[in-house]
Amino acid sequence: MNHALTAAAAGFGTGLSLIVAIGAQNAFVLRQGVRRHAVLTVVGICALSDAVLIAFGVGGVGAVVVAWPGALRAVGVVGGLFLLCYGALAARRVLRPGTGLTTEGETTGSRRRAVLTCLAMTWLNPHVYLDTVFLLGSLAADRGPLRWTFGLGAALASVCWFTALGFGARLLGRHLARPGAWRVLDGLVAATMLVLGVSLIAGS
Description:
This protein is mainly alpha-helical. It is 79% helix and 0% strand. It contains nine helices and no strands. α2 packs antiparallel against α6, α3 (39-58) packs parallel to α6 and α7 packs antiparallel against α8. It starts with a helix and ends with a helix. The relative contact order is 0.25.
């Protein structure tokens, strides 16, 4: 029992250390949380996607994909282009604050866009595969028969982080109610997306 708890705790700590870093996915979840729009859906998609990818890694899929390096390069280019486009849209909102975000009057279409964007942020981001499938998968393999317990701990860390990030962002709503604050937030998002997009394409 103690060994299982140790493996789960190690997985939780490792998973948390990997996803806390600033990235495209975290920036998007934060933005949706501040808007109070489709937060539960976005948090659920991120947490469930991480759980699936972690399961792939623990199950040994990472070792198979590594044998075909062209796959990771292709995902890197596609993901980088997507991040550049998303960053350009955020930069456009900075230059045209009149088209900025609001926390009310959301439509079904905007919810659909949020879901599609969240899926793209997750599944087109090579760093997600590197962290969950390859890195966590290899670390879990070292745990032997407790590898799935390690993976469960990592998946739990993902659930806790995205829940805290998405719903905790509501506390910032009052401070980000001013248009100027939205421009600053969108500026940070744009810079993050553009830098990550360029780095992904350059490294592919």
